[in-house]
Amino acid sequence: MGRLRQKGKAGAAKAYVTRSAAIKKLQCSLADFRRLCILKGIFPREPHSRKKANKGNSAPTSFYYAKDIAFLAHEPILKKLREHKAFAKKLSKALGRGEWSDAKNLEENKPVYTLDHLVKERYPSFIDAVRDIDDALCMIFLFSTLPSNDRIPPTLIENCARLAAEWQLYIMRTKALRKCFLSIKGVYYQAEVCDQTVTWLIPYQFTQSIPADVDVRVMLTFLELYQTLLGFVNFKLYTDAGLVYPPPLDMKKLEGGAGVGAFSIQEVAKPGNGVQKVKAVEIDGRKVSTKDVRQTIQDISANPTEPTDVDMVTSEAVVEADDDEFVPIASKTSDAQPTDLPTLKSIQALPASLSTTLFASCVFFLSRETSRPVFEFLVRSFGGRIGWEATVGEGSPLTVDDPSITHVIIDRPVLEHTSETAEERERRLSRKYVQPQWVVDSINAGKILLEDTYGPGKTLPPHLSPFGEAYEGAYDPLATDEAMAAESDVDEEADEEMGDAVKDDAELRAAELAAEVAGVDPAAFEKKVKKASKQKSTAPAPADEEDDMNKMMMSRRQKKLYDKVKHSQGKRSDERAKLEEKKREITKKKRKDTKA
Amino acid sequence: MHSDEEGDDEAESDGDVEEFPEIDVGSDSDGDSEFNSDNVEGDLDEEEVDEEEESDSDAESLHVFPRAKTVTSDITGQPKRVYPEIEPDYDSDSSTEEAPNRVGNVPMHWYDDLPHIGYDMDGKRVLRPARGDELDKFLATVEDPSAWTSAFDKNAQTDKPLSAEELDIIKRLYDHENPDGNYDPYEPTVEWFTSQVEVMPLSAAPEPKRRWIPSKWEKKKVMKILRAIRAGRIVPNKPKTSSKRTQLYDIWKSDASTTLAPALPAPKPKLPTNAESYNPPEEYLPTDQERKEWEDKDAEDRERDYLPQKYSSLRLVPGYDRFIKERFSRQLDLYLAPRIQRAKLNIDPKSLIPKLPSPNSLRPFPTYKSLTFSHPSSYARCLSVHPSGTWVVSGDDNGIVSLWEINVGREVKRWKFSGKIGAVEWCPRTDVCYFVVGIEETLHFVIPPNLPAAVYELTYKLLAPATLPPAPETPSPIKWTTASSSKWTIDTPLLSIQLSSGSGLPRQIAWHRKGDYLSTVSSGAQGGVWIHQITRRHSQAPFKKIRGDIQLVRFHPTKPHFFVATQQYVRIYNLAEQTLLKTLMPGIKWISSMDIHASGDHVIVGGYDRKLCWFDLDLSSKPYKVLRYHSRAIRSLQFHPTYPLFASSSDDGTIQIFHSRVFSDLMTDPLIVPLKILRGHENKEGLGVLQVKWCPNQPWLVSGGADGAVNVWCS
Q1: What's the CA gap between A404 and A383, in Å, rounded?
Q2: Which residues of B fall within a CB distance of 8 Å from A134?
Q3: Disulfide engineering: A533 pairs with which of A25, A235, A502, A528, CB 3.0-4.6 Å?
Q4: Per-residue pLDDT tens for A261-302?
Q5: What is the pTM of this model?
Q6: CA of A287 to nearest chain B CA: how many angstroms apart?
């Protein structure tokens, strides 16, 4: 006979620990436990049987792995938290007694913890860290714009702003931005960093207030970790790209509200090629290479101010840029391995959104009602130059009357050109005025779109998500647009050729010939065809009926699963049908309006 | 006054004593002696003059300790106590007191049995004092007032009264006081070391060197710290709290060496869709109704956490007020939600449907309604198809039984009975031709018209034999009556069986395959199962008592087995051995129908709870397959006698045809394929198709419904 098995000594009862038991074991407060869990990334687990895990008790609790808790118990931060508790007691005692010097001394020797080891532990490789950086970016961008109060010190906000600016600077420098989306919540950006897709959301520039039902302690604990994480990630990104970290900051510009422009990127001076580094011309923090200069010359010579066909010009520009980048390399190494090299064809086969130098030929000027940080970031990420009015912030590389400006991003109703000088008129005519959505739509389309539809005061085309829908087969507004158009055509041309659309063309033609040979009246033949097609459409497919009957041979479990899948599919198709129905109504209404 | 004066004198001398106790010894002794001599007198004076209180005077007179005197010191001006000098004469010693017994401190029990108790100073025996008996002792305590203050003296072996001093000590001890009456716990303190700085030092020792030479060791320690500060090892006033910004370095330079399993990465939030755009296509905008629905729902129940909105330009887009809240809820998800890795269900639902052979490959089976025979304004409750497959009899609730032809539906003959027709069944024999009609408490045997002469002869002989078989020994409640040959016409039944009264309507008539026995199940309270034998004109009840309400019975097609279905179970009996073979448990709440496959190894059972169970009798008493496909109760089931088909009919008005192939080898499971749903009967008062019967040699089906129609379904 084996040993007697005692209850609660093995299995789920041992593997899981309730939260209160965990707190008791760690001998810390609930707040400290939460802090530890956040920092260490430990989350509750769902046991297969809650009753077994809780030793027969079915009260609602959350469970943790016992090993996770043992892991927490060895955490140096836990010790620091205990020290901090003792410190807080000592400090309050000293303050209560009025021993100010003691209190000061204590405050100076306050125990502090660092999170370096946690970053390494939670993200063993750099790729892991980049993969999980989405939430960190969202939080840091959010806090970089919050107003400070007694819970949120200004130093914290300053640090967040610095980290956010460093990240943006890196994205701009490496041209890693891929997609952008203006939503009602804020602006979504998607970039590709180290082959990982990173998406983050920045709220629009309005003062956010923290609601009362939000626990700031939790948010600040997360922020603590995220700051450390983003700091290390930025460091790694900068050093890997051969840049100086931290990027030098121009305090004067920062105070003038230059934002990202206050930082300047500096390459690490290599000891070997100190002599060669001569002509790094910097214009307001942006390095201008010879390539850029050549490109601007090309742009000027191509005279982009009077484009007859916009799409042509832009595609040319893109191709030329590609030539610049790839052809010399190919010629240099053509003797070695020409097969590996990217050819023009392969480049063109790549998805359209990969054209990172989309705005290389454009020079933008921001009207003062547009959001500078958003469009500065977007335009510079895609190789464009941008200027803004001095009232918006310092550090604009261009002024309003700069002749090189090709586009003006404007977001106000149509301007009245009543009293303008000839020079102003000339300037106005030589530039294109577009609404902000044009920039984002161009980025998402991967090409420079026609500016006319986005002109000031015009009704904008709908702004669609570049991320697509959540599932396959969802409603696609663009596809339905075409379908609607086709449908309306069919409607207008009446029911004449209903049969044609449905039946196979070749078959029909053969039948027609046969009918002609037999001497059947063509009108009668057409009627017959229509009837046949209608019958075809009304008769249910026999295979479906068979399936319906075979369903009764399914086991109960299979039937449940089948119903579940069918339910979700039905829900989706309902949603889709609803949207299509709405669309149909809208187009009908529009058509009626235009006719009237 | 006198005492005061004296006190003053003494005080002067005493003052010296206080000042220099060590030095002036001589003067001190003088003063003391002087004082002592006076003391006694003063004492007496005080007693006489001042003190009137008895207790005080008693205390003073009874004093064992030398009495102290309080005098005011001349020098300090403080009252002080002075004790009298002890005079070293004989009186001062207690040992000089007269005590006759001089044995010393020896245990007195040595003298217990001797007449004396010791010896006096002269060596003479001290005789034991006379001690009275207990009565005397008692009397002594009563009479002698000082008895309670006397104690036994061990040395004298007698009671001795305690002196006043001794009593005083006892009293003080009782009161937890100091036994010394003169002890003053609140004596004024004497300041030996005062705040007054004296001119002369108390000690003449020279001051040590360490008081005025700097310490070498201290200097060494200070120098050590100083050097450390200079070298920068110690930074003075450096706060231990490190600077706010953590030192950044390449943390991922060294390889990941953690042995920890990689944690589940947090799921990424969903990417925004078109509906979240600031300028979505118009069809995404919610209607007023959708908006209201969204607002009425709780925040957790909403599918989207926002309402799509459209702004004509970017500058009009307001700040999103739930931004921080959403961030916070995301964080709550990250650290409070249990993370489970779920396999995403990405199955094509069609793959779940079992692959079965196509019905087209399993033809023939009935597919369409070829004709309808109607029983107007009644339920076509029962029907039966002739073994040859050409004739059908159907009975309705009005008591009409119709005989008609299956191919064209022409009615050949109609009989009218009183009351409902419960069951109709053709005799399975082919050499004779008649059918049995069950009405209230009666079975009628009817011969159809237009029979060939030979068949008619045989049938007539069978039902109305010239010589009746001998009556059974035990009288039976069942009566067999044959219509007399003169009265009998083709319109009336030739033979009738009167079932026991109160047995109600026969629910079912089941023939044995040979056509000699038939069994009836009656629905009434006095009913039950009866087996009737035609040739012997004899009826018997196979069960004396049976548990449960019997619904149906069947004969096994080949063996002498008898299937009895009660409400929930099917029991199989061996009629030859009269034993229970098996009980099938279909798990149906109320069995409505049952049929046995021609091979005899498979049984299907249908119930009012819509279930159909297929039993393989070789396998188990639990169903091999349970199907639930009808939306209402199953009413009737039948296997086709020759084709691999079975049909079920239900109150939902449909008939379901199945292909059911049974394999002779034990390894292969029976194949059940649904073939066709036949619709054509109307529902009436919640009843649908009441009975289905197969045409024996064709894949045709005849069905009778609550709408009064009897349909023939052909392939």
Answers
A1: 15
A2: 268-269
A3: A502
A4: 888 888 887 654 443 433 444 444 455 455 555 665 555 554
A5: 0.63
A6: 26
